[in-house]
Amino acid sequence: MTQRMTLISSPCYVPESKLEKIDSLQNLFPSSQPLSLEIGCGIGDFIVQLAAQKPQQNFVAIDIFNRGCDKTCRRIDEAGLSNVRVLRTEARSLLLRHIKQQSLHAIYINCPDPWPKKRHRKRRLVNAEFLKIALYCLEEGGHFHFSTDFVDYGIEAGKLLTAEPGFSNCHDHPNVHDLGDYPISKYMRRFLERGQPIYYCHYLRRPGYAAEPPPPPKKGFRLRWVKES
Ligand SMILES: C[S@@+](CC[C@H](N)C(=O)[O-])C[C@H]1O[C@@H](n2cnc3c(N)ncnc32)[C@H](O)[C@@H]1O
Predict the structure, then answer these.
(1) Atom in ligand 1 nearest the alpha carbon of residue 63
(2) Alpha-carbon gap, residue 226 to 218, rounded angstroms
(3) Cα–ligand 1 centroid distance for 208 (angstroms)
(4) Does 104 reside within a domain?
(5) Averaged pLDDT, 77-92
(6) Has residue 146 been placed in a domain?
(7) Would you list the DSSP string of 85-107?
(8) How far apart are CA 31 and CA 50, in angstroms?
(9) Ligand 1 atom nearest 188 alpha carbon
(10) Residue 44 resides in a domain
(11) What would the mean pLDDT of 112-134 be, rounded to a whole number?
(12) Which domain covers residue 139, as residue numbers?
């Protein structure tokens, strides 16, 4: 797919090439604070709310689409937030190549591409293999947040998370509809306004769980973004 590329000049935008030159994503921020990652930030509605809610944390928001990154940066600049950096990159590529073991306080994934057709479901980002990568990168007690409007994806993610011994559930059901003070993303709002419930999962990485270094993911959709290291 060809994207029309917009040059992003915002101070919160980090070109992917810069990652090769830094030792840790923490070096992108003025102060060292717990670091969280939003995957698939879209146009930035969610991260702007979250980063304003939690000024004592740093956030990296990523998306594979340049226009989304541009819009996210504009929102962050307008809101005057200094605790967010935006990168145009692929989630597994970033996690496997640039995020150290147990270095993330939280991972947020909202309304990821649902790939509704049965033959496309293997393209979904959140699967058992992805959860192993997330467990490796999350700190002890680190948070994994997932939300979707897509019933089948919500149920499947809840099952996978419940079956994964490295995670413990913060709720008494694999996924819930009550979002509490969880910020609402653009896609979440769209579906809530149509009266469709959001399937929300909030799990913690179990303290003491020995996460194995994840193998590079098998060939799969969008994995052309994962370069050889
Ligand atoms: C359906 S949109 C949801 C956007 C936003 N999270 C929301 O809820 O409004 C999914 C977003 O995830 C991005 N995306 C899809 N796969 C990705 C991946 N493997 N790594 C990073 N971003 C991805 C897409 O470019 C798109 O912007």
Answers:
(1) 22
(2) 11
(3) 31
(4) yes
(5) 97
(6) yes
(7) EEEE--HHHHHHHH--TT-EEEE
(8) 18
(9) 8
(10) yes
(11) 94
(12) 34-219
Mean pLDDT confidence for 181-210: 97
**pLDDT for 22:** 92
Q: Is residue 85 part of a domain?
A: yes
| Helix/strand/coil for 142 | strand
Label residue 210 exposed, middle or buried (CB < 10 Å: 0-12, 13-18, 19+): exposed
Catalytic annotation present for 113: yes
Note whether 67 and 4 are within 8 A (CB). Answer: yes
Q: Per the residue annotation, which of 23, 63, 113, 152 is the catalytic one? A: 113
d(CA 220, CA 126): 13
Count of domains for the chain: 1
Q: pLDDT by residue (tens digit) across 93-115?
A: 999 999 999 999 999 999 999 99
Distance CA 227, CA 171 (A): 37
Ligand 1 binding site (Cβ under 6 Å of any ligand atom): 39-40, 42, 62-65, 68, 90-91, 110-113, 125, 185-188, 222
Contact 87, 69 (CB under 8 A): yes
CB atoms near residue 63 (< 10 Å): 24
CATH code at position 148: 3.40.50.150
Global pTM reads 0.95
Question: Whole-angstrom Cα distance, residue 168 to residue 205?
Answer: 6
- Which pair of tokens denotes residue 179? 């979002």
